[in-house]
Amino acid sequence: MRSRSAIALEVLALRQQVAVLKRIRPRPRLNSSDRLFWTVLRCFWSRWADVLVIVKPETVVGWHRTGFRLYWRWRSRPRGGRPKITDEIRGLIRRLSAPKIHGELLKLGFVVSERTVARYLRRVQRCGDPGKRWLSFLPRRGW
């Protein structure tokens, strides 16, 4: 003997499949509401795979996983943050060579952080000869 809710869920699942099969196309296509129905039914009913006829249970599990991927992609989307810097400010950062570029930019009315200024500065080579590498400073003892 099964409970009334289990029988009602089974009837609901079978009626949904019959509705899909009654569509006019030779091979019925499942739309997004059909996929949502089966993924939700999978969460709430343990015997969902026993009455599933129109697709394989692995397909429903794949839909569920795809839904999770879409959800987490949506959750981790970029949401604002600091505004992008224009090409004009980037050029100005590269042209200035003073140690306090951040302060100078603030005086000019551009609101940027010191870290942003440091990110756009070119790397300064501290060696006299640009061709020298770190290995040239190590003693040649077989390394």
Q: Can you walk through the features of this model?
A:
- The chain is mainly alpha-helical.
- The protein has two domains: 4-75, no CATH class; 79-122, no CATH class.
- The protein contains six helices and no strands.
- The protein has helices spanning 4-21, 32-44, 57-75, 87-95, 101-108, 114-120.
- Helix 2 (32-44) packs across helix 3 (57-75).
- The longest helix is centred in the middle third of the chain and has 19 residues, at 57-75.
- The chain is elongated and about 80 Å long.
- The chain starts with a helix and ends in a 23-residue tail after the last helix.
Keywords:
143 residues; mainly alpha; 2 domains; 52% helix
Structure described in brief:
This protein is mostly helical. The chain is built from 6 helices and no strands.
Hey, roughly how much beta strand do the residues contain?
under 5%
Radius of gyration: 32 Å
Shape: elongated
Q: How many domains?
A: 2
Query: What is the succession of H and E elements?
Result: HHHHHH
Structural class: mainly alpha
Mean pLDDT rating: 79
Number of helices: 6
Give the low-pLDDT segments. none
Q: What is the distance, rounded to the nearest whole angstrom, between the alpha carbons of the first and last residues?
A: 80 Å
What's the helical proportion of residues? 40-55%
Main β sheet profile? none
Write the layout of secondary structure elements.
Blueprint: H1 4-21, H2 32-44, H3 57-75, H4 87-95, H5 101-108, H6 114-120
